[in-house]
Amino acid sequence: MSTILDATKIQARAVIPIVKALEKDLGKERAHAIVGQAIAGSYVQYRQKRGFEVDSHPRVEQESGPNFPVERVVVENTESRFEFNITGCQFAEYFRAIGEPEIGALMTCGVDFAAEAAMRPGWIFRRTQTRMQGAPHCDFRWEKREDAPGSDNA
Description:
Elements: H1 3-26, H2 28-50, H3 58-64, E1 70-77, E2 81-89, H4 90-97, H5 101-107, H6 112-119, E3 123-126, E4 138-144
Antiparallel strand pairs: 1-2, 2-4, 3-4
Helix pairs in contact: 1-2, 2-6, 4-5
């Protein structure tokens, strides 16, 4: 079992009741916005402390980054584009099994956009669906910005 998954399960034991209490007091949308921002900010700080090469090609992260409990299928891998689908995700399996995919998305999927903005400002990151939301795969897509250092148009 993944240590990242184990840590997420432990965190979920604390986060889920907090989110539920906030939903009662603030409403679901506001509670999720607050918690989602806090978790994403915390994850970005963690990644900054851990260290990363700013604007590295996304494939570098897949080769030497955190060992997430997911199954990836690379769709495109060029110098200016990187795309993969996650076809298996133990985070999604866990949170769906306990009936909390929305909170699971806050704790896991929700950090991706903030992390990518901090780590790869020279890349456009897109993801339109996740397994946590019930899609058959998560679609991770990166495209190097035309004005980014090292691109043909910079």
